[in-house]
Amino acid sequence: MKRALARPALTVGDTVAALTVGARRNGAGTAMAFYPCVDLTIGA
What we know:
- By secondary structure, the chain is mostly helical.
- The protein has helices at 2-6, 12-26, 28-42.
- The N and C termini lie far apart (20 Å).
């Protein structure tokens, strides 16, 4: 998980796709844990 965030080539689309897959596989709780990281990545 941290590896993906460390990749400079990671795009917002890739992040959203990863969150979607994570939510489907591991449940919404896992996806929620990623949202703060996504906010930092986007700069919002």
